[in-house]
């Protein structure tokens, strides 16, 4: 027994801060190489395990005593060799060969394999509190998901790796809707892939035709309304002609006033002219 090295003896330190009472859970499970602190939180017993230097915790650090079942709410953690958990880097490399066990203040550097991108810090240090700071990074794939050839078109791309561009082209008679070029950035395309849409005569000319048609309809409607109105009032065509002449004269009058106004305004301030003139004038047929 005398020859046993003291640092190899499993060490359990229990610190009771509250007196034991009948209605509490059984003694908290012992954990080798740990210090145990018992407190109360929200009127429940709380056990906190702290690993000793050179060991790190695996599992839940805190256990609560369930007052109903009088049992600890989770299994006890363990304290494993190494001051911090062993760093791991999937699809990458760490510069350390003697990682097990990790000692306090040890520094590791990280590098990802080709076509992988490091997310996070490229170095980290094992802290006194058994954590790695900055947090351990991960290697993510730099490749973007492959894209399908668009219907009625094609694309040109060297590869789908980070930084690469992809350019889309449409067949004759089709137009590209969306971004023509996308760039792969850290595994994500910069935009949605475009589509090739048929260029049809109808799509370009239809709106203009429709507009003209509606304009024609409007004029017809107005004239029809005018005629109907005239009929209802029992006026003759001669009378209508006369009232239209009056209307015309009134419009001429407005025109003259407007042009003098424009001139005056222009003299005062050119900038104001465009705003000062009431352009939205409506011809009122109701007085006919
Ligand atoms: C704690 O250490 C002792 C002595 O090495 C060992 O017998 C025991 O199984 C350990 N307990 C746990 C929970 O690992
Ligand atoms: C305590 O244990 C009882 C019985 O197992 C369970 O129903 C209850 O949810 C537990 N309470 C808490 C706070 O975990
Ligand atoms: C890893 O590299 C860093 C920086 O070069 C160095 O400080 C550290 O000691 C290295 N760690 C190991 C375990 O070799
Ligand atoms: C870590 O990244 C920095 C820049 O962010 C760079 O200067 C340094 O050389 C890198 N260290 C290692 C070991 O890759
Ligand atoms: C990809 O396109 C971007 C933006 O258009 C440009 O800055 C970059 O140099 C291009 N990369 C390659 C590899 O052609």
TrEMBL record:
For the Sushi domain, which residue ranges apply? Answer: 23-81, 82-141, 142-198
Q: Does the keyword Hydrolase apply?
A: no
Q: Which SMART domains match?
A: CCP (SM00032)
The answer, when asked if Repeat is one of the entry's keywords, is yes
Q: Which PROSITE patterns match?
A: SUSHI
Point out the signal peptide segment: 1-25
Keywords (A to Z) from UniProt: Disulfide bond, Repeat, Signal, Sushi
Intrachain disulfide bonds: 112-139
Question: Any idea what this protein is called?
Answer: Sushi domain-containing protein
The species this protein was found in: Vombatus ursinus
Task: Tell me the name of the encoding gene.
Answer: C4BPB
